[in-house]
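Sequence and structure are kept together here, with a separate record for every protein. An example record follows, reproduced without changes.
>
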Amino acid sequence: MTPGDNTAWGELRRREAWLWLAFWGTIPVGITAGMLLGERLLWVVMAWLALVAYRATLLFKVRCPRCGKLFFRREYYETYDYSNVFAGACLNCGLRKWSDSIA
């Protein structure tokens, strides 16, 4: 395993952790903001959902350490692509997520 592999998986772990933190934090933030802000709650919830969408977008941009293509996205032809953020392997070369070997 080369040092580049560890940083690639580390980046994926960080991005997944931030996404899940933002996603599962939606309810506590919404309840707290509702109690404290009242009518301004809508703006807080919209901003929070924008944060979740931004974090999901960052997760989709993770590249595979083996092939260098997007890990969670596969392009078919020029007009169709397939994305799966829950994929357990690279959608292009099949490298298993968290694998020690990239050969």
Observations:
- The longest strand covers residues 73-76.
- The radius of gyration is 17 Å.
- The chain is about 50% helix and 10% strand.
- The beta strands are 73-76, 80-83.
